[in-house]
Prior knowledge:
By secondary structure, the protein is mainly alpha-helical. Helix content is 67%, strand content 4%. The chain has helices at 3-7, 13-29, 34-41, 45-57, 73-96, 101-111, 117-130, 137-145, 152-160, and strands spanning 61-63, 69-71. The chain has a two-stranded antiparallel ribbon. The two termini are 17 Å apart.
Amino acid sequence: MDWKRFDQNPVTHSVAHHLVAIAELREQYGYARVSDVARSLEITRGSASLTLKGLKGKGLVTEDERRFLGLSGEGQAIADIIRAKRRVMKELLTELLGVEEAQANVDTCKIEHLVSDETARRAMRLIVFLSSGHPSVEPFLVELNRFETFSDEELSSYARKDRG
C-alpha cells in the first residue's frame, strides 16, 4: 500500500469540515461568518479564524468587504464532492449495512474526505441499484440479512485468513 500517497491528501478532516460548514451556512442563511463557522463546528472562533486564513491563502475561501465568507470555485467543488461522499457513505452504512444512524454519522465523518471518488461512485451505484426496484434486490437483501451475526472473534479470524 502506498501510504505516502495517502498521507498527502490535500483535504484534511479539518479543511473538509470548514469548507462544508461554509457551504451549508450559506445555503441555510445566505451568508457565513467566522463566528458562524466556529459555532457550527463547535470550535473556538480563534481556531476557525486560523484555519480559514490558511484556506483563504490557498484560494479555497473568499471574504467580502462585510467579512462574509464564501467559497471559490475550487472550494465549492471540494465541498460538493465531500457532501456527496458523506451522503453516499451514510446511506451505504444505514440503508445497506443497517448501522444505527448515530454510529453511521460518526463513521461517515471519519471517512467522507478520505474515500476515493471511484469508491464513492461505486458505492452510489450500489445504492441506486438497491433503490431501483429491480426484482433481484429483495432476494439479495434477504440473503444479506442472513449473515447478520458475526462476532468480533470471527471478524479477527477473517482478517488472518489467507485470501490467496
